[in-house]
Amino acid sequence: MTDQEMSVRVSAEDIEQWLMERVSYYLETPIEEIDPDVSLAEHGLESVYAFALCGDIEDKLGVTVEPTLVWDVDTVAALTVHLAGLMAELPSV
Amino acid sequence: MSAEKLDALFGNPRDADNPVGYAAILAADERHEMLAEGERLLDAYGMNAEFVPAAYGGRLVRADRLAEVQRELWRRDPCLGLGYGFSSLLGSVNIWSAGTDEQRTKAAEILLGGGRIAAAFHELDHGNDFAHAECAAVPNGDGWLLTGRKEIVTNLRRAEAMVLFARTSEDAGSRSHSQFFVTRGELPADRVLDLPRFPSSGMNGVQLGGLRFSDCPIPGTAMLGRPGQGIENALRAYQLSRVVIPAVLVGPLDTALRLALECVHERRLYGGFAADLPYVRSALARAYADLLAVDAFSGVALRALHLAPEATLLYAPAVKYLTSRIVLDAFEDLRAVMGAQGYLRQGSYAMFQKLVRDAAPATFAHISRSACLVLILPQLPRLARKSWLADPAAAEQLFDLGADLPPLDFDQLAVGMLSGDGLIGVLAETAEREPAGSPVGRFAGRFRDEVVALRDRCAALAPSDLTIGASPEAYAAADRYTVLLAAAAALAVWRSDGSQPEAALLGILDRLSGRLGGASVLTPDERASAEQALFDLAVERFQDRRLFDLSARHVSG
């Protein structure tokens, strides 16, 4: 999927899959070992990765988020719901 | 009130009868005491008002002005600088940043009434690893019960109030610590034990205290911000102090250079004055260039707190990291010139050894150099991919030191990810504008080439290279990046102020490029000529009784 497609129409499943990939990248852990309902801090995601992930979210999804978003909404499942909500509010292209 | 007034109040430090001169400062240091007369003068000056925002009745409006006043104090006695000055700044920035109006008013009353606010963050077992701080508060009715230790905290025993950093949740992550603003009077005496002063090799007069809390009740209203906001608040508020401390360390370096210049003009060696030896002149010129580099880099970062506050999350650790090393290296060069005179605790130059000891904590105090790099590393891949050699430099006013600034706004200090640094663009712009064969043009080209090399390395950094466990190569890349930022800052400051001598810029860039290694950019003749000009300028400043920094302010001695 290209960035453009992502920002035009994106499903919650797409967001979750992409988040899992990013988290897997930062943790250097296979996707299968990441539980979307377990807190990212508990998975070992350090605070700096949380900032980096917020940067990725802005770059990829085109939404603006608080840099501390991942500290507060700290599971892949909860982040997916949150981001899908933000994306739904974006003006359609 | 101003740095000029503080200078006038303290008078000529070389005057043997001055009760706050070097002789008195050294005597207090030998007794391991704060200089009482100095503290009295600072009370009279109202130093604490410098740390209180104007909206709460103080004089804190501009970060550069705050630093200028502190530098004046630190150039005389770093013990007064830390023990009277910096300590309460460190405590209070968290309150200005995250406190309620009521908490800020209370903090202002304490400070303006001459009281102190200590910053009780540090635990010996955890160093800069605040995310693992153990001192913990558990809910207790409307408030909290605190248990644990805080160690090597300036003024903790004699502070009227403190900002405490404590774990408030057992969860992993960055929302498990909070800050509390409490007065000593609010803590029951039988739940708090003062620890003995921690012996240290410098800052002898400063009360480096500790506290042990045992189920100590903390009022619920003492919390700064929301539960779990402690790390975030420190990351934001400490951007100010992490820029101010490098700027004030120019003060002790100024005095050390002043003492060294005096020494080499007085001392006869090998049939002439020490000042006539080329080695000595070169060493002093280089130390002077280092001082100017620190002043320019920190000066830009101080302005950024007002003009580009979103970027100081990067500037603050970069300035703290690099300049603490530069200052200590310059001290080392001066030490080589001073020889035994820089080691003796008596005689005309005894102040020198005290400054060496007092400046030594620069590399680890407040935040260590490696912890600074850990704040920089996560920014590098994104900056390398998106910004370097693509974005222009920040607007000119960032580099116009001394020019007007909007008031400091703590709410603008941020955490997160940057998309540009505003500085690296200076290097490419200068390389394009300056004649390629000119010394400045060659330096700009050298630094731009380094950005190109660094860009590829940083864009490819693995996730494991973005945290404390990063490889030595990743740390080295971040280190080199700070050198480039400093070079860009100096080039931009000189571009903005045409009155600064080019020899000084060449000296700064020569020293900075030396930190990158590789072939010398200057020819031996160019270097000799720049260093001679720098040495002559330093002598002129010394004889005119002017500061060595970019302000060249006239001082009493």
Helix/sheet category of chain B: alpha+beta
Report on the biggest sheet of chain A.
Answer: none
What would you call the shape of chain A? globular
Kindly estimate the percentage of residues of chain B that lie in beta strands according to DSSP: 5-15%
- Residue share in helix of chain B: 40-55%
Task: Let me know the number of strands of chain B.
Answer: 10
Distance between the termini of chain A: 17 Å
Content of β-strand of chain A: under 5%
What letter string, H or E per element, gives the SSE order of chain B? HHHHHHEEEEEEEEHHEEHHHHHHHHHH
Q: Strand sequence of the main sheet of chain B, in spatial order?
A: 1-4-5-8
Radius of gyration of chain A: 12 Å
Helix content of chain A: 55-70%
Class derived from helix and strand content of chain A? mainly alpha
Kindly report the greatest chain-chain contact and the residue count on each side: A-B, 24 and 21 residues
Report on this model:
The complex is a heterodimer of chains A (93) and B (557). Helix content of chain A is 63%, strand content 0%. Chain A is mostly helical and 93 residues long. Residues 1-5 of chain A have low confidence and may be disordered. Chain B is of the alpha+beta class and 557 residues long. Chain B has helices spanning 3-10, 22-30, 36-45, 63-74, 78-98, 101-112, 230-248, 250-266, 278-307, 312-338, 350-359, 369-376, 380-386, 424-433, 439-459, 472-496, 502-516, 524-543; strands spanning 117-120, 136-140, 143-154, 161-167, 177-183, 192-195, 208-218, 223-224, 268-269, 272-273. In chain B, the strands form three sheets. In chain B, strands 1-4-5-8 form a four-stranded mixed β-sheet. A four-stranded antiparallel β-sheet of chain B has the order 2-3-7-6, with helices on one face. In chain B, helix 1 (3-10) runs antiparallel to helix 3 (36-45). Chain B starts with a helix and ends in a 14-residue tail after the last helix. Classes of the chains: A mainly alpha (93), B alpha+beta (557). At the A-B interface, helix 2, helix 3 and helix 4 of A face loops of B.
